Amino acid sequence: MNAKIPLAFGAKQVPMILQTEAAECGLACLAMIAGWYGHHTDLSVLRARFVISLNGVNLTHLVQYANGLKLSARALRLEIEELGQLALPCILHWDLNHFVVLVNTDRKGILIHDPAVGAHHVPYAQVAKYFTGVALELTPMASFKPADERRRVSLMALMGRVDGLWRSFGLVFGMALALEVFALAAPMLNQWVVDEALVSADRSLLNVLVGGCALMLAIQTAISLARGWTVMYLSTHLSLQWMANVFTHLLHLPMAWFEKRHLGDVVSRFGSVSTIQHTLTTGFIEAILDGLFALATLAMMLIYSVQLAAVVLIAVLVYAGIRVLSFGPLRMANEEALLLGAKEHSHFLETIRGVQAIKLFGRELDRRGRWVNLLVDSVNRSVRTEKFMLWFGIASTAVFSAEHLTVLWLGAGKVMDGALTIGMLLAFTSYGAQFGGRMAALINRFVEFRLLSVHAERLADIVLEAVEPEGQQAHVTTELAPRIELVDVSFRYAENEPWIIRHLTLTIEPGESVVLVGPSGGGKTTLVKLILGILKPTEGELRLGGCPMQLLGASASRRLMAAVMQDDHLLAGSFAENISFFDPQPLQERIELCASMAAVHDDIVGMPMGYHTLAGDMGMTLSGGQKQRILLARALYKSPKIMILDEATSHLDVLRERQVNQAIGELAMTRICVAHRPETIAMSGRVIRLGNDMPGLTQ
Ligand SMILES: Nc1ncnc2c1ncn2[C@@H]1O[C@H](COP(=O)(O)OP(=O)(O)OP(=O)(O)O)[C@@H](O)[C@H]1O
């Protein structure tokens, strides 16, 4: 596919909005079309208004959401030849599981805004491959009102609190300013050498001037070194504090946030911190200095000759014009390059994680092929950005060379007329070159700052997202009895999804042992996640020890609980570290006691390094059952009042499972297990049956 992005010359354009979450292409398409009609919105605003699950949306939901935005929708079935007759822009159903915006059609193909990869011109041969024949035309209703509800992202809000930032900035700025004063004085020294020393053949003056020049250079070098040092310090300091702030925030985001994003995308968004920080630390100060220095050189040039100064100014304006006109496409190319890079990264990480299955199914070449395609896409977009930069370099050289020639031509005439001396012309050309260079740098920096908005928006998805709220009564958690009450609780993953749990009222008394059973997909894990505070009930209330969960807050209530979930992992570290979950003051006796209760102590001491044996990130050295037992020991180490086991003993033989259950059964804690095996169910107390025939449950 060839990418063609129209240039912005003030004409009304369909905005390009790239999707953030894996399944929100439909929302992104609606945002683009609403934007075209004048209701500018962004995905974070729409996400809050229309909650969608990982399953994404279908055409019916899109119609509902469009109505919510006061756009009336008309779904059509049509042939490719009829695309030209659609009211544009409209939404096309694409590749069976995706939506894109049709922006324009021409003789060769169609221009689409694809929320997954950006703007594309797609030839008709490819349209036939991807277009499913379904389109959605959207037009504003009478009640539609233009609005702008886009979230503004300020760098300060993204950065959070960084200590000593302004002091360090001030220091670097002071040193840089001192350097600039020397740079400003240099052309005048040249003028004096030519006009005073050379003309009068005054050797002693020449010696004084050259000596002064050498001293200036020595001071300049010393300040340069100090400045470089300080920038390095500032940059490291800022980067460390900022990254730590963002990482802390990331870890406090709700699970639902992580579930809806690809790993590579999260990594790439986090990486935006470095890009912004780097541009800010070096670029920000240099931009201010470039501006100040340009003003000073402009003043000097005007003193020498207004006419010549005007020539230089015109050249700068021409260069600025070129950069302004090409800003839109450059920003888009940048955004797409980042998005495609993240996709490629996700694919890479997923391939490494799933390497065993890939080998077993013999799909190595297929995975490689897909990765190479993603890499090529990503590299192509980066090349597009580099091409822009190449052209800017050439434009800058062409414009400023023309300016230089004109100044030389006009200036030489002035020297012949006696309006300027040779030294003055030399000094002027030197100031002119400095002014042009600094202004070009300033314009480039300005564009760089504007382009930071791409990174800022990506980072905002982490930083401006609300963390799990702290409860007002979080402090009372430790005194609470481990009683769990669900009062008329209903839950579904999104408005358009079926109810998983409906009107469920249930009390689990302190010390009670219950087992949740039911068919696969019946909602057992969902109920466990509700109790753990990972999910919030859509309706109804959950109470812990009589206190509503939302007053306690998820993290406080989790302090009472420990869980072994179906897809839990061990982390890179020794078994002892994993069992104590990297407790800074681990209690070896307790680690061994918990391992014994989880029936894994003998397995661990049988290994060459005992409790110091390393468990890999992917846990390759352990059997499935051993891994489950270590996870159990980890949960026991927490000494929870409530233990939740989601098929946590499914890989254990019946004998071992009985052993583990007996050990846990002797502890004073409330127990909730999810199980399928009759033996496991028989070992537990009260059975709670959840099923596809919800609402309700049987006990
Ligand atoms: N993040 C999600 N978004 C949308 N739907 C989901 C999500 N997670 C689970 N579901 C759906 O919710 C339903 C219940 O899933 P759940 O994992 O609770 O079932 P389960 O009873 O634990 O199944 P199993 O015994 O197979 O583990 C399923 O239909 C599943 O597809």
UniProtKB/TrEMBL annotation:
Domain ABC transmembrane type-1: 171-451
Recorded GO MF terms: ABC-type transporter activity; ATP binding; ATP hydrolysis activity; ATPase-coupled lipid transmembrane transporter activity; cysteine-type peptidase activity
Pfam short name (any one): ABC_tran
Membrane topology: Multi-pass membrane protein
Regions annotated as coiled coil: none
Stretches that traverse the bilayer: 165-185, 205-226, 292-322, 388-412, 418-436
Highest taxon above the source species: Bacteria
Compartments, record wording: Cell membrane
Entry's Gene Ontology BP terms: proteolysis
Gene3D superfamilies: ABC transporter type 1, transmembrane domain, Cysteine proteinases, P-loop containing nucleotide triphosphate hydrolases
Residue stretches making up the ABC transporter domain: 484-699
Peptidase C39 domain ranges (all copies): 19-138
Keyword list, A-Z: ATP-binding, Cell membrane, Membrane, Nucleotide-binding, Transmembrane, Transmembrane helix
One cellular-component annotation, GO: plasma membrane
Protein name, entry field: ATP-binding cassette domain-containing protein
